[in-house]
Write a structure and sequence with these properties.
By secondary structure, the protein is an all-alpha fold. It has helices spanning 10-16, 31-49, 97-112.
Amino acid sequence: MSENDAWDDWETAADTGLADFKKPETPKTTSINKQNKEDANAKLWKQANEYSTPTIIRTDTIQTQYQPEIKILKRSNDAPRGHLKGTSTGTAQTKSLVDREKDYLLARKRIFGDQSTSGHSNNTR
């Protein structure tokens, strides 16, 4: 810092009057100026909100547009109706409750091993 420069120290700048900053005065707006600004803003918003559909110009007019072939599909008359997928026509028999529990216990033994069957009882319902 130089000793003679008033800008180096804010106290020196304040003493010499360099720090006195006056806000520039803004001209007072009249109602006519205010109305003109409001009209200009309204016009700008109106232009911004207008929607116009863009025009698409194709440059590849040689190429034809793809149109899919329409086919009406129909099932044959000999196809079974009303059956669920994966079931046979009347050969499946329903198992009794005892058979289903037996199959369940076998599957559980296969998955978890022998130790898991000890905690399971058939009478817990």
